[in-house]
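WP5 quarterly update. Target: HTH tetR-type domain-containing protein. Source organism: marine metagenome. Length: 182 aa.
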Amino acid sequence: VEALVAAAARLLGDDPPERISGRRLAAEAGVNYGLIHHYFGGKEAVLREGFNRLAESYGAGPEDGSWAPTDPFSMRQRPDFVRALAFASLSGEVYDAHVVHPTIDAALERARRGRPADEDAAVRVDVGIAAVLHLSRCLFESTLSPWIEADGPETAEVVEEHLVLVLRALMFGLDPGVAARG
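Structure tokens (predicted):
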């Protein structure tokens, strides 16, 4: 069972769910194809567990504590999770909404601390927008980096600092336009 879930997590970081066959999954795990049906009932259940494994692993962060999943743009540290999330989203197979970003609850809790209780809907909107910014920055980093770095590494650092300020402003109900200007 463990080998199948680990194999599913690895494969989901490289390919969309529809390109992962049960036979490929079994081969990656080094087990008989029949075990997928015996233990999980089908490929979809194994992939769901693999996706959950990736999400939980990201949410736990690294053992060495070199980054935290609540850090701005921390998904860069786990490109396999970003790819799996993107593939699953594009294919319409995001398995469980609550694991799309394992730190959303922590982000909501942190954002709620500094805001009045009657602003809960606004907090959810702000955290949702922040999550979209976080994910899109990590997902499109390689596409945006050449453009951002065109004027040199100093420009890239300034852009990164401003993006972090915007992300934090969204989380705490501040004006992201003011934050973007530094």
